[in-house]
Amino acid sequence: MTYHWVDTNRAEPFTADASDHRELMAQIWYPADPAAGAARAPYIAEAEGRCPVLVFLSGLYGFRSVSTFQLEKLVSHGYAVVGLDQPGVVTTVRLPGPDPHRILAGHLDLGRVGVFGVSLGGRIAAESCLRDARIKACLVMDDPVPAGVVAAGLRQPTMFLTRDAETMRLERRSSGGWSEHDIATTLGTMRAAYAKLSGGGYYVEIPELFHVNFTDLPYWLPASARLGLTGPIGGRRGLTVINALLNQASRAIPGTTVAVRHRAQVPAE
Prior knowledge:
single chain, 269 residues, alpha/beta, Rossmann fold, 9 strands, 27% helix, 24% strand
């Protein structure tokens, strides 16, 4: 289900018109019972009960369904996932007129909300948790943590997913990016933010995983490994490892906080 939201209390930061308000496109994935003979939806279906809610934020120039493999995995565990397209951040946003859908009315448990994001979306997720106590859990994937978040520390159970420095250097040799400054900033701030957690959490480095392995690119472009865009871990193996870790992170929302604090490395097969 897709929604067009306008926040009349916030000015639009990416236009010069003072009368513009902040607008977002949101797509919601939610649990559904399969119906015999029903056609597969491109990314959605029908809901029962009240679901805890997770907000997904893509990276710079991404889009709301860029990591569908994660969204579908979380929905299969009973979550409603709201993917946001943020104007000025994602690749492109088409804003329609008002959306009359009320299919999810009464089905979302807004007392149990988490946020997760990859790349720039991870940075925004961490900042959101610092600013909004209504968010109960956080997942930050492969991006520096803002200095204010590191200094203050997060109260919510939080998982940090990234790669080791040598894997980042391998990605630099294969497809560019990831200067030594980028590597030091990403790993240094994520480790520091993890050390300041008061609500428990995880810090995980996944060897041989490249940045775009956090997205659906291995599905879209089977040649991505030969082009040096995805890591030696392999597309399917990378998605499987990330989803296995999502299972652990998602336990923070239904009422059981992630109480174990440890730094882990996931061995390659």
